[in-house]
Amino acid sequence: MADVFIINVTVGANSVTVDSDSVEADYHDQIKWSSTNASRFHIQFENNKTPFDRMNLTYAEATTFRNPEEAAAVGNYKYTIVSDANPNVTKDPYIKIKNPTIQT
Question: Which fold, 4-97?
């Protein structure tokens, strides 16, 4: 059974906070980011590694449910949440991709 992860993001004038600095998921799971206020942000994955089909997610893409790519390697994917209003305001959490759980 797939899990659903909603990562709540609060972008302030000088900081970005998230309700979870890490998420552990497999390619069956759905992930999206959600803003807790009116401030917008985008996502940038680092080191040419992303569990999704692109390295950068716009606000609209980040706030829509997406599944990690089935071909995504197991491991940690560091990303940066960047304020659209001030690109100097960031946060660096990560997503851990795990092997899928086999249902019997």
Answer: Immunoglobulin-like (2.60.40)
**pLDDT tens column, 52-89:** 999 999 999 999 999 999 888 999 999 999 999 999 99
DSSP class per residue in the chain: ---EEEEEEEE-SS-EEES-SEEEE-TTSEEEEEESSS--EEEEESTT--SSS-SEE-HHHHTS-BPPPTTPPSEEEEEEEEESS-TT-EE--EEEE-PPPPP-
| The 30-35 sheet, strands edge to edge | 16-18, 4-11, 30-35
